[in-house]
């Protein structure tokens, strides 16, 4: 069904939202068929690999908004490729849920990849990420245009002191780790 919708767009697809059924092959088909995609949302697409996302990233130079929620990507390598390949990216949502994670160890890999390659972000949502204060500091340094930052369920963060003040002063819409996520948002 998704392939038919892509075919009917005659190469003019700008916005696509895929839930559950996306694979590397389908993602490649979409990006081979549509060169003007500005918004891509992948939700619960557990069959997309780092290699698959990395391969298609170069075909998304006009991408402005990317959402990847609840995936099995090992993150950092693919995020660096996405950041380097999508210079117009303004909004990035990369969400996970702690309750589904079997590995709760701290990791700043995602944060460092974002900070190193996504300098023009205005909106960043990292729900359920395992970043620490060091990762958040890197994001604030590497993404100077951030206006909104959603850190809900990022339970390794300790936002007191200077880092908390910096976030509060700089970010217009800041959502903190322990703020609730409504059913409409999840």
From TrEMBL:
SUPFAM superfamilies: RNI-like. InterPro entries: Leu-rich_rpt (IPR001611), Leu-rich_rpt_Cys-con_subtyp (IPR006553), LRR_dom_sf (IPR032675). It comes from the Eukaryota. SMART domains: LRR_CC (SM00367). PANTHER family: F-BOX DOMAIN CONTAINING PROTEIN, EXPRESSED, F-BOX_LRR-REPEAT PROTEIN 21-RELATED. This is F-box protein SKIP19. It comes from Prunus yedoensis var. nudiflora. The lineage of its organism: Eukaryota, Viridiplantae, Streptophyta, Embryophyta, Tracheophyta.
């Amino acid at each position: 069904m998704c392939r038919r919708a892509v075919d009917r767009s005659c190469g003019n697809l700008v916005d696509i939202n895929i839930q559950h059924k996306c694979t590397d092959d389908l993602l490649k088909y979409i990006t081979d068929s549509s060169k003007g995609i500005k918004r891509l949302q992948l939700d619960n697409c557990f069959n997309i690999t780092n290699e698959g996302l990395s391969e298609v990233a170069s075909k998304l130079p006009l991408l402005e908004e990317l959402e990847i929620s609840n995936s099995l990507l090992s993150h950092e390598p693919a995020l660096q490729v996405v950041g380097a390949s999508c210079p117009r990216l303004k909004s990035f949502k990369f969400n996970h849920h702690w309750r589904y994670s079997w590995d709760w160890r701290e990791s700043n890999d995602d944060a460092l990849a974002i900070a190193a390659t996504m300098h023009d972000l205005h909106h960043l949502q990292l729900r359920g990420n395992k970043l620490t204060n060091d990762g958040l500091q890197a994001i604030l340094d590497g993404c100077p245009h951030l206006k909104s930052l959603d850190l809900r369920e990022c339970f390794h963060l300790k936002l007191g002191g200077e880092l908390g003040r910096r976030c509060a002063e700089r970010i217009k819409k800041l959502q903190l780790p322990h703020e609730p996520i409504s059913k409409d948002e999840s």
